[in-house]
Amino acid sequence: MYRAPVEDIAFTLKHIVGLKAALEEGIFSDLDEDVVDAILQEAGRFATDEVAPAREAGDRNGSVLENKAVTTPPGWKELYRRWIEGGWNALQGPEAYGGQGLPAMLGVAALEMWNSGSMAFALGPTLTMGAVEAIEKHATEALKRTYLEKLVSGEWMGTMNLTEPQAGSDLAALRTRAERRDDGSYRIFGQKIFITYGEHDFTDNIVHLVLARLADAPEGTRGISLFLVPKFLVEPDGSLGRRNDLFCAGLEEKLGIHASPTCTMIYGDGSVEGEEAGAVGWLIGEENRGLACMFTMMNNARLAVGIQGVAIAEAAFQKALAYANERRQGKASSYHGEGMAPIVHHPDIQRTLLTMQALTQTARAICYACAYATDRARAAEGDDKQHWQERANLLTPLAKAFSTDIGVEVASMGVQVHGGMGFIEETGAAALLRDARIAPIYEGTNGIQAIDLVTRKLPQSGGDHVLTYIAELEAIAAELRNSNLAGFGITANVLDEALADLIEATQFLQQCVSEGRMDEALAGATPYLRLFSLAAGGAYLVRGALAAGGTRTALCRFFAENMLGETAALKRSVMDGADSLADAGKGLISA
Amino acid sequence: MYRAPVEDIAFTLKHIVGLKAALEEGIFSDLDEDVVDAILQEAGRFATDEVAPAREAGDRNGSVLENKAVTTPPGWKELYRRWIEGGWNALQGPEAYGGQGLPAMLGVAALEMWNSGSMAFALGPTLTMGAVEAIEKHATEALKRTYLEKLVSGEWMGTMNLTEPQAGSDLAALRTRAERRDDGSYRIFGQKIFITYGEHDFTDNIVHLVLARLADAPEGTRGISLFLVPKFLVEPDGSLGRRNDLFCAGLEEKLGIHASPTCTMIYGDGSVEGEEAGAVGWLIGEENRGLACMFTMMNNARLAVGIQGVAIAEAAFQKALAYANERRQGKASSYHGEGMAPIVHHPDIQRTLLTMQALTQTARAICYACAYATDRARAAEGDDKQHWQERANLLTPLAKAFSTDIGVEVASMGVQVHGGMGFIEETGAAALLRDARIAPIYEGTNGIQAIDLVTRKLPQSGGDHVLTYIAELEAIAAELRNSNLAGFGITANVLDEALADLIEATQFLQQCVSEGRMDEALAGATPYLRLFSLAAGGAYLVRGALAAGGTRTALCRFFAENMLGETAALKRSVMDGADSLADAGKGLISA
């Protein structure tokens, strides 16, 4: 059973990504170490004792649609109730609307633990937080007054309605229509798919944020507007009014996250008797500027998905480690007890477990470094603010794509450690793999993250920002070299090589982009993102080992001597691979 | 929908692994190219038209247990009937018992296609073939007369009963008991788990091969005997007699291969009214020599699982390629048509598809090279026979582990290419990933394959056999270099480097084994197996490209310039990784 790794998360925040030093400098004036520890402890307790035990029933029963109403799995409604009563939904919410206004670091930390407990559960509140952010930043005061407090507390939940059958990665293809009404409201007509928690029984009302197009809007992404469309209209006194013209027409049968209802939503179908057809909605931000509103929360949403990868990897590692210490087969030189050896003694099983652990910790460090940058940006001004905002921008695609890729890899290794039992659903290892598989896809596929990294993040500040970041990573390698500490083996050399690979590949891609050789840049994007993540992750492991020693040093060395060498091949693929890709790629295209 | 890649398989056999040259030399006297082509064509037609369409219903409905009887999915019994009527079960069976006695190459080729059509379907006959082999090689004439003809035709099916709850990878821990009876028969008592097709409605009788232990047997693996235990006893005239004391007590709820019933089998529980308890069985081979009987068919069984990896990868690639040509999102420089570009035009999607294709083809070449070696061994005498037997032994762990590893990887990439649709079960991409995940586990986990490669296969012929094989691969690289053909980019250089990595790592591990540094050998086994497979697979892709040019050259170059560089990091992990693994591994062991 999952046990929240509170100490590991606290260590990562304080000693790897820099929170301790920042607290000592007084950068986060409202925060001190005791508050951080207390919140992590309490969130960890709730994730361990309340969320994780609900996972299996959620996976097994799933959410069910009947007569346009969705019933969540047994016990889940009560779990959600306890969760909002604990104040967990309000953790990051704005203080003006009842939130605790805590930094992103703590929000992400809590989110990691909820997701390890049950990704299908944590997903709903993640979307509510996105809705809160969009409304707070872009909606009118009237909308804020009506909706924000209840969304912050979790009394109502929020959703994001972007995807349509023909418009997934390419939102320019959206067709959902919006019509203006004289009273300042709009009417929405169209179909949205893959709407997470689009309908459920957790809350009395559901606040949908819907992307749609006005009839006179420009084509493409510059003609998309964002609307707030509640399931039940809200009366001036805050009570619920009539049902809005929208409903859930179907649930997807998915590989994983069964408890999370993935809805097809129909807007404006004339489903409310006696009312004119059209779902009543209100504009958020300006007309035709809907995508800009979405982009302001995209970094946070992507980081929230990235942490899902870390969360699944952590849960899979814990489960595999426990099994490997319990299951006995064969003999092993390091086992001197009676009978068969626990399989954790076999070197090949150790390799798998250490690989799982190292990948989890590298991805975790990248995600928390990203959250830390977000918080620093919020606390800073001027150039400093831009610096930290660019840092968050840079790390977001790494956090999203690398973490969710390794989430799948680590969950798959977890199945393997369990042997035949891993393939049996009762064991729960396979369920983690099934859940993990969505994270590299949604909130921008990992391919799109890689493209974003190369085409939009590397050019930040004329290309300087990323190089400054890599220089910081090099300083970690230099600190290791100068420390003369024992136990690191050839870690310093390997990290130096990896960072040299990263610089070469970075400058190559920056040149491709600046010279408009876009196909070369696009071809190298995915191996570059992995190269970047491994090198950055390796540096973070070193920083942790320098701070703590012991098993952190041993794991860091394992990572360097067994896994970090991959960067050379990735660099080669980035710098020399595009031509052969373009050549062979032609053979894939149907006549 | 899957379409059997008959030409690709025929090309691999003839031009990559050497069948064409062998036929011209007259090595397979009974075989000619026309026969090979005709069988592949017909098997391909059946796999495409009959097996593949049954996959989805099989996955959705699964097999169901009620009153100790298992009902297979709708239409599956009829499919099996048509399949045996087509003579497909008898393809490799001994001619003396009605089989066609065709070489392993063709058996594996057909098996690839059945598995691409539906792995859950192909799995049953795979086990029957194993039973046929064990009985033919080791059973008495009387047993052969009674059982072989019906098992060869497929009128009855066979199973393998090895695993018990405490005995998976380590068969020494077996507890199922056998007792001698005066009439030469035995009575079997015990519980077996994970028994594939242990009970079903395809055939009137099921012939179980069961590993069990006599009371006076030595401990460990030298005290295990193999028994034939039919579901229904067989009368002297060949008709079915009374029910034997065995039954299916449960089906596992699994991640994938839902249609394949995975049974808990109870032997000797007194389940037949009016009969003494004990399942009636007959010895195969000698008492306490059961594992030796199993080992004679282990290579073939492992290759049969390896080809499952290739089969799933092929099916996943075809599905993803079709989707990428159909689905449109965004713009791409290589697309000049109207509207959004088919996503196959995006370089990042091309990278994923080419990676899938290249991995599929490398694994396929390794599997067919292994089958070819088996057939050469069968056709040869003396030293030549030993050479080819050692070749088959060497390639078996690569075929099993590398192919099933890439089966999972390619199926996962296939889900990714589908974007959000990939996570929806209806699409079928996720089902391939679910099915693929068992293959790295059963028939000896891939970790055990790697250990087998390093500790038992590298020392063959005093260490010379593997070096001879690598020299053959080097000759392919030299042929490429000498050819001066265009379009290969830096393939020759990269392949030379990969083979140099392979030689270094091989000699290092040989030294570890010969000096008894076993933990170092065990630590490096898994990265070594992948290094070996990539290098060998790269050489095979070159051989195919030298023979055919065109898209094979382009894919070969893509593989070399984007994927083969990984060997350097793998070599490093093999040669320098053991110490850090042992150090960090200690931290995993519970106090």
From TrEMBL, chains A, B:
Domain Acyl-CoA dehydrogenase/oxidase C-terminal: 288-453
Reactions performed catalytically: 3-(methylsulfanyl)propanoyl-CoA + oxidized [electron-transfer flavoprotein] + H(+) = 3-(methylsulfanyl)acryloyl-CoA + reduced [electron-transfer flavoprotein]
Cofactor: FAD
EC code(s) of this entry: 1.3.99.41
Domain Acyl-CoA dehydrogenase/oxidase N-terminal: 38-155
Domain annotation Acetyl-CoA dehydrogenase-like C-terminal: ranges: 472-583
UniProt GO molecular function: flavin adenine dinucleotide binding; oxidoreductase activity, acting on the CH-CH group of donors
Enzyme class: oxidoreductase
Pfam families (UniProt xref): Acyl-CoA_dh_1, Acyl-CoA_dh_C, Acyl-CoA_dh_M, Acyl-CoA_dh_N
The entry's keywords: FAD, Flavoprotein, Oxidoreductase
Residue ranges occupied by any Acyl-CoA oxidase/dehydrogenase middle domain in the UniProt entry: 160-265
Family: Belongs to the acyl-CoA dehydrogenase family.
Known role: Involved in the assimilation of dimethylsulphoniopropionate (DMSP), an important compound in the fixation of carbon in marine phytoplankton, by mediating the conversion of 3-(methylthio)propanoyl-CoA (MMPA-CoA) to 3-(methylthio)acryloyl-CoA (MTA-CoA).
PANTHER family: ACYL-COA DEHYDROGENASE, BROAD-SPECIFICITY LINEAR ACYL-COA DEHYDROGENASE FADE5
Protein name in the entry: 3-methylmercaptopropionyl-CoA dehydrogenase
Species this protein is from: Borborobacter arsenicus
